Amino acid sequence: MARSGMNGARGIGAGLLACILLAGCATTAGPQVDLEQVQRDAARAYQQQRYELAERDYRLLTEHLPTEAEPWFRLGNIYARTNRPREAARAYHEAVVREPALSRAWYNLAVVRLRQAGHALVELTRHSLPEDPLNVRAEQLADGLFRLLGERRADTAPQPGPESGP
């Protein structure tokens, strides 16, 4: 008798364990994300220049569609247009890793890095001694870079992002 009671207890214990494990599996899946709706919302927010909302949605898309380049490209544009050049360069890089032929991302990556170089040269002239021989060359390079970019040289923060399409 004791033996069958023990088997019964084991059976109940095993059954409880199975229920707990199944319940755990059911709750870890989380809510389903409608990626098509997220994409539409992101594109709408981006078009309306509501970059905070667009950024949130494009970041979600990069998590759920890790091999897609377009969400990374759009994030790069958002970061460039909101004066976050480091983040922009990283996002454009992520886009070209996923799609090496994405010329828009390569172009915007180059523009962001040229702006960073120009601003670094401006900072050199602001922080170095006036008699430093590199000042003259840095001024020339900075002026040339900003002229190449079709921008006016500003001795302040980087200008908003690249012009290459959506």
Low-confidence parts, pLDDT < 50 over ≥5 residues? 8-28, 156-160
**Bulk shape:** elongated
- Any idea of the CATH topology of the domain at 35-148? Serine Threonine Protein Phosphatase 5, Tetratricopeptide repeat
> Mind summarizing the main beta sheet?
none
The CATH superfamily of the domain at 35-148 is known as Tetratricopeptide repeat domain
How would you classify the helix and strand content by structural class? mainly alpha
Question: What would your notes on this structure say?
Answer:
This protein is mainly α and 166 residues long. The protein has a domain at 35-148: Serine Threonine Protein Phosphatase 5, Tetratricopeptide repeat (Alpha Horseshoe), CATH 1.25.40.10. 72% of the residues lie in helices and 0% in strands. It is built from seven helices and no strands. It has helices spanning 2-28, 35-47, 51-64, 70-81, 85-98, 103-127, 134-148. Helix 4 packs antiparallel against helix 5 (85-98). The longest helix is centred in the N-terminal third of the chain and has 27 residues, at 2-28. The protein is elongated, with a radius of gyration of 27 Å. The N and C termini lie far apart (77 Å). Residues 8-28 and 156-160 have low confidence and may be disordered.
